[in-house]
Design a protein that fits this description.
The chain is of the alpha/beta class. It contains nine helices and four strands. The chain has a four-stranded parallel β-sheet, sandwiched between helices. The longest helix has 31 residues. It is flat, with a radius of gyration of 21 Å.
Length: 225
């Protein structure tokens, strides 16, 4: 019997601009599994940046593939990474993986696409650095040269700091929203159950700590607001 393990990755930016959220990824992976008459053993969800190679959910997905002989299925190649070395090392791990949008691609095709993806990412980074350098040469002052001192003089230091913390917490909550929805769909709805599931997935609180019932309650309240 064919077996597959689905891996989905999202970030707030991608959800907002690419249109490829969890539902679209799940549909693509499930459609591929159906076309291959394969059984989906488990779906892993990662919420983080595409540049980050340390991914606990992906590591868990690969481990499951190795012990079951399943194929790792993703919706698109860039769901894994834009880093060519990372993708090529993944190929060398011995785990079979396929992108649902190009199921007939071979290792050579994937390797070439990975190199192109990294080249594009490096080109974007270079253009950004060049633009900043050009601005500096024109005499443009980047950032606030007075920093917190300017805020204190304007008597806005404390309110600005509070606003910054709130904005960071809101962003973190938005990143976790699809994960919470997925857990609820699995029947995990209690505060303790959600906290346990988030900790098992190595997902941190906004301050980088572990989840407890109180922090989950705060997260849910923020999402509801």
């Amino acid at each position: 019997m064919n077996k597959v393990v689905c891996y989905q990755r999202v970030s707030t930016v991608q959800q907002g601009h690419s249109g490829l959220g969890l539902e679209a990824q799940a549909a693509a992976c499930n459609a591929y599994a159906a076309s291959m008459q394969a059984t989906v053993l488990k779906t892993f969800i990662e919420v983080e940046s595409g540049k980050l190679n340390a991914r606990p959910e992906l590591a868990a997905a690969l481990a499951l593939c190795k012990v079951t002989g399943a194929t790792l299925v993703i919706s698109k190649l860039d769901r894994l990474s834009r880093n060519a070395a990372f993708l090529l090392n993944l190929q060398a791990s011995g785990v079979k993986f396929v992108a649902a949008d190009m199921p007939n691609a071979n290792n050579l095709t994937v390797g070439i696409m990975a190199l192109i993806a990294q080249q594009e990412a490096e080109a974007i980074s270079k253009r950004t650095k060049d633009a900043l350098q050009a601005a500096k040469l024109r005499g443009t002052v980047l950032g606030n040269p007075n920093g917190a001192a300017a805020l204190r003089r304007a008597d806005k230091g404390n309110s600005a700091a509070v606003s910054a913390i709130k904005a960071e917490a809101d962003s973190h909550a938005e990143n976790l929203a699809p994960v919470i929805d997925s857990l609820k769909a699995e029947g995990i709805v209690s505060l303790g159950g959600i906290a346990k599931a988030l900790n098992e997935r190595s997902m941190k609180t906004p301050r980088g700590g572990v989840w407890h019932k109180t922090s989950v309650a705060n997260l849910l309240a923020r999402l509801a607001a």
